[in-house]
Amino acid sequence: MFTSAEHHPAFEEYCECIFELHEDDLDVIQARIGERLQVSRASVSQMIEKMGKAGLVKTDGSHITLTSEGQELAQQVVRRHRLAERFLTDILGLSWANAHQEAGKWEHVMSNEVEVAINRVLGGPTTCPHGNPIPGSSYIDPHAVPLSQLQSGSDFTVSRIPEELEFAPGLLDFLQDSFMLPGRRGHITSLQNDGSISVEIEGRVIGVSAFASARILVTS
Question: Which CATH number fits domain 145-219: 1.10.3720.10, 2.30.30.90, 3.10.560.10, 3.40.50.300?
Answer without folding.
Answer: 2.30.30.90
